[in-house]
From TrEMBL, chain B:
The keyword ATP-binding applies. Residues 24-256 form the ABC transporter domain. Belongs to the ABC transporter superfamily. One of its GO terms (molecular function) is ATP binding. This is ABC-2 type transport system ATP-binding protein. SUPFAM superfamilies: P-loop containing nucleoside triphosphate hydrolases. The keyword Coiled coil does not apply.
């Protein structure tokens, strides 16, 4: 701790070993090294740093987002969740393959039976299975942990003292959760596509409406569905982010988000509550099957996207209002 | 002890020259928490630029809340503060890149290495240059002696290593002000000594250091200035030498005849005369001790010993705060 090496004197590539000349010639190194240190700090240090302060804040924000994404995608917990999400389409595919080999095709849902006829339909089948709960769990874990987790660890105060900037940090946290939701959805689709192509015949696709489109257009429709689902997850991420700014316990924010996801889906399923249903976020998540109609059900999907945007704006604003005025005492 | 407020105004870019201006100024700074509890009460703090300022007070006296307000983490209920000439929390973006801070102990990502943790903190500072990051991180780790443990996960760090890592994160760029909240907490005696050396070294390079502590001895050894907190209020501040001389010196005479000696001291005009068992003491005031001695001898009082005692800093502080400083309040 007593070494006096300044950035100028340290050799960056070779980390110094324990036996440094500093220990052996203290009287020799001290005066010669202290002098430049003082001169640098007083004379050059501040003006040099003042320049980048004015320009390049966009680059700095991208760097913070990069750091955030690095944390998210390298964290074992998140990798495990992504692995589970990627495994589900494979499991569905294998099960369907076994079932269709047995010749027991009747009874299953229309999309499920369609998979046996065309591997591409496995993508939609997998999304139908994952979108109501498992995908929201993954997004809620990342977004719900985003602020509360940092507060709980105490790292939030150091990020803000850096200073990361409250609005900037919140925006980066949200962008990170949105990217994670998109990546998770795309991963499910990719896993399903590969599994479907390997296990089932692939060719022109018969849509829910009965008409047939070529394979290439089918891939475009998969992309549309992925985009729509990711938008729904982005809306959920805004809700989880809001809850995350309200607590210092990340598991609380995550659990609260998931309770809301489940409860709203239950409410949406009660016929007597039909008037409320359009206002509930999960009601719109399965709207991605509009991409399977001919022509695409752009009206319905557009309305879903508007609901997602409304949720994102309302929850995002509330999160911002809360986070920028909050006393950070953790 | 005098409180002169001269704020370096537009010269925000360059550090104020040593000895002029203030790195931290607070005016009537008050924080009342939601329960109605007043953590900090009308604080008027003036930390001269270039000083090593000891912020002293028992645990729970409002030191950490003050530091959180200085860093823009907590919003004052009333009053205001300026850090490096910038009002907080409004001027946070301009001031904080020039401030290194250790607040209420180290906090890092347990699953990242020490080096990765520093990279993360560096990325959060919008003014830091990513091209020099690796170089600066290596230099900061080297400076606190953590080079060998740079790749080790934070989870596996000892408390002392964690504290060093926090210091390293405060030293990632040259700072004009370092705010250290209880920097020696959890350090062994060797670590404490190293921390003192590091603070001295940083201060010599022109950085103002604001260091909070509940340990008087620590502040006495490191600091040039001191501010004393008691239950949310600042009870004293100023250069440490000035505070130390603030107490009146007393003269103490050992004699077999205390009553006679007391009469002589009274005749000399000394006040606060107290007779003890075989000794007498009094406030010396402006009187020269040798004259007191000559007078005693001239009046036939046998003097076995004579001493002038200045009150220790601890006596001064106990007088100010009503309690000792190593007491966990």
């Amino acid at each position: 701790m007593s070494r006096l090496d300044t950035p100028a004197q340290t050799r960056p590539e070779t980390p110094p070993t324990e036996t440094q000349p500093t220990e052996t010639h203290p009287t020799e190194t001290r005066p010669t090294e202290t002098q430049p240190t003082e001169a640098e700090t007083v004379a050059n240090g501040a003006p040099e740093r003042a320049a980048p302060a004015r320009r390049g804040t966009a680059g700095g924000t991208l760097r913070l987002l990069g750091s955030e994404l690095g944390l998210t995608f390298r964290r074992p917990r998140n990798i495990a969740m992504l692995a589970v999400l990627a495994a589900v389409p494979v499991i569905i595919g294998v099960v369907l393959r076994v079932v269709s080999d047995d010749g027991a095709e009747g009874g299953a849902g229309s999309i499920i039976t369609a998979v046996a006829g065309n591997g591409m339909m496995l993508t939609f089948a997998a999304l139908f299975v994952l979108v109501p709960l498992l995908l929201p769990v993954a997004v809620a874990v990342v977004a719900g942990d985003s602020v509360a987790g940092e507060a709980g660890m105490g790292t939030l105060r150091y990020l803000l003292a850096a200073p990361a900037g409250r609005t900037r940090l919140l925006a980066v946290k949200y962008a990170n959760a949105v990217v994670f939701g998109l990546a998770a959805t795309a991963l499910v689709a990719a896993s399903a596509l590969i599994t479907g192509f390997l296990l089932f015949p692939v060719g022109p696709i018969t849509l829910l409406s009965g008409s047939t489109i070529p394979l290439a257009e089918g891939l475009v429709r998969v992309l549309v569905a992925v985009g729509y689902v990711a938008a729904g997850m982005a809306a959920l991420a805004a809700l989880a982010l809001l809850l995350s700014t309200l607590t210092e316990i990340s598991i609380g924010a995550i659990a609260a988000t998931l309770v809301l996801v489940v409860v709203t889906q239950v409410l949406g399923a009660i016929p007597q509550l039909a008037p409320v249903e359009p206002y509930l976020l999960p009601s719109w998540w399965l709207g991605f099957d509009g991409a399977l109609r001919a022509p695409m059900a752009l009206d319905d999907m557009g309305q879903g996207l508007l609901v997602f945007a409304a949720y994102a704006v309302v929850c995002g604003s509330a999160a911002w209002a809360r986070f920028t005025t909050k006393d950070i005492t953790a | 002890m005098s409180l002169t407020i001269e704020v370096p105004g537009a010269s925000a870019g360059a550090p104020p020259p040593r000895g002029t201006g203030h790195a931290i100024v607070t005016r009537g700074l008050t924080k009342r928490f939601r329960g109605g509890q007043v953590a900090v009460d009308s604080l008027d703090l003036a930390v001269p630029a270039g000083s090593v300022f000891g912020f002293l007070g028992p645990n729970g006296s409002g030191k950490t809340t003050t530091i959180r307000m200085l860093l823009g983490l907590v919003r004052p209920t009333s009053g205001g503060c300026e850090v490096l000439g910038e009002p907080m929390p409004e001027g946070l973006a301009g001031a904080l890149p020039r401030v290194g801070a250790l607040v209420e102990g180290p906090a890092f990502y347990p699953y990242l290495s020490g080096e990765a943790n520093l990279r993360r903190i560096d990325a959060a500072d919008p003014t830091s240059d990513r091209r020099t990051a690796a170089h600066r991180i290596a230099a900061a780790l080297d400076r606190v002696g953590l080079t060998a443990a740079a790749g080790k996960r934070y989870r596996a760090y000892s408390l002392g290593m964690r504290q060093r890592l926090a210091i390293a994160s405060a030293l990632l760029v040259p700072r004009e002000l370092l705010i250290l909240d209880e920097p020696t907490n959890g350090l062994d005696p060797q670590g404490t000594r190293e921390m003192r050396g590091l603070v001295r070294e940083i201060a010599e390079a022109g950085t103002t250091v604001f260091v909070s502590s509940h340990l008087l001895a620590e502040v006495e050894q490191m600091c040039t200035h001191v501010g004393v907190m008691r239950t949310g209020r600042l009870v004293a501040q100023g250069p440490i030498a000035e505070l130390r001389s603030g107490g009146e010196p007393r003269i103490r005479i050992e004699t077999p005849d205390p009553a006679a000696a007391a009469r002589v001291l009274g005749a000399l005009g000394l006040t606060g005369v107290r007779e003890g068992d075989g000794e007498v003491s009094a406030d010396l005031g402006a009187e020269a001790p040798e004259r007191v001695n000559a007078e005693l001898v001239a009046r036939g009082v046998a003097v076995r010993g004579l001493a002038v005692q200045r009150p220790s800093l601890e006596d001064v502080f106990v007088g100010l705060t009503g309690e000792g400083f190593d007491v966990e309040a």
